[in-house]
Specification:
- The structure is a single chain.
- This protein is mainly α.
- 74% of the residues lie in helices and 0% in strands.
- It contains twelve helices and no strands.
- α7 runs antiparallel to α8, α7 packs across α12 and α8 packs across α11.
- The radius of gyration is 18 Å and the shape is globular.
- The two termini are 31 Å apart.
């Protein structure tokens, strides 16, 4: 289902990038978000049609759609973009998002989390959790031994530890989210497990079985892991170095 979904939504992300290009030489603003929103809605409908109604990539559509639009804008302007540029534009594009969380309308995990606990989404920060935590962890692990799978696993646990995941919050509440983060922080303190891909994979798999029993989903962290992997492949560790 995830592979089907990824194939279906890819063209829509290209449309987001192309739309961002039409905003070249304009200040990044919520107007760009308003313009790509119908693309994201259409992508979500296509995703659900391909998966029989299963939400595989809703959060990823949002994260990658925003990133693609910001990147398209920068590339159209200068033929290059730095990670810092893209993050700054995403923050500007999402400047009105927190205000939207106060507005009545469609219910969502994000709105409930913000209303009850003051936990907002990652987009308004330009995905700071990725750039400040997951991406450095991914790059450090990759530099150490070149093992991309171990690097991704380490980045995932790092996200579990620091991300206020609205999916997790919706499933198991604030106490459950904090317990989830505590599990990840405890694992991150065990250097012997972190250094061994097989042991790290086994630890995460065992925890995943426990999560399944509790119906705990860390889908938001999964979306951020995908973004971490993509940014890690296309941008250098120096956020000021262009793509």
């Amino acid at each position: 289902l995830f592979l089907k979904s990824a194939d279906v939504i890819a063209p829509y992300l290209g449309d987001c990038a192309a739309t961002g290009m039409t905003f070249a030489e304009q200040p990044a603003s919520p107007a760009l978000l308003a313009t790509i929103r119908p693309i994201g809605i259409a992508a979500e409908a296509a995703m659900r049609a391909a998966t029989g109604g299963v939400n595989t990539h809703k959060g990823a559509i949002f994260a990658f759609g925003l990133t693609a639009a910001a990147l398209g804008k920068r590339l159209a302007e200068a033929g290059r973009a730095t990670l810092a540029d893209v993050q700054a534009d995403v923050r500007a594009i999402c400047a009105g998002l927190l205000a939207e969380l106060h507005q009545p309308g469609d219910d969502s995990a994000g709105k409930r989390g913000y209303a009850r606990h003051g936990i907002g989404g990652e987009a308004a920060s330009g995905y700071a959790t990725v750039s400040s935590h997951a991406l450095p962890a991914y790059r450090q692990a990759l530099t150490a031994d070149g093992n991309s799978r171990r690097a991704l696993l380490l980045a995932l646990v790092t996200l579990y530890a620091v991300n206020d995941d609205s999916n997790t919050l919706a499933r198991v509440g604030l106490d459950g989210l904090r317990a989830h983060q505590h599990w990840a922080r405890t694992l991150l303190a065990d250097r012997a497990i972190l250094a061994d891909e097989a042991r790290l994979s086994d630890a995460i798999a065992a925890y995943a079985r426990n999560c399944a029993a509790k119906r705990l989903s860390a889908g938001g962290s999964a979306d951020l892991l995908a973004l971490t992997a993509w940014l890690g492949q296309h941008f250098t560790p120096n956020p000021g170095t262009p793509l």
